[in-house]
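Researcher: Structure for this, please.
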Amino acid sequence: MTQQFRLTEPAIKDIEQIADYIAKQSGLVQSELFLSKLDAKFAKIAQFPNLGRQRDEILAGIRSLSIGTYLILYMPIGEDVEIFRVISGYRDLSALFHDSDSQ
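Model: Predicted structure, token format:
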């Protein structure tokens, strides 16, 4: 049985910001290419939820998988996979879940 993936609101905002940034820096074609690659990664994560690296130092049970200089942070939950964030690998990852007051 194939699992499904769900994007959280923060993940959707992350993706929109990244796509906008790439479009401004490199053009719409590159932005669309990134989104296509990202969608393929999400499908791969749904198919193989334990594919990424376990990142308990960020949040218990969360995993990460890279796409270029970005990280997909996700967690298998029941039969599905929840995509929590898509962020630059250069960010302070532990602060994402511990220091935010909710936006």
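Researcher: Any notable elements?
Model: The chain has one domain: 5-98. Strands lie at 5-7, 53-54, 63-67, 70-77, 80-88.
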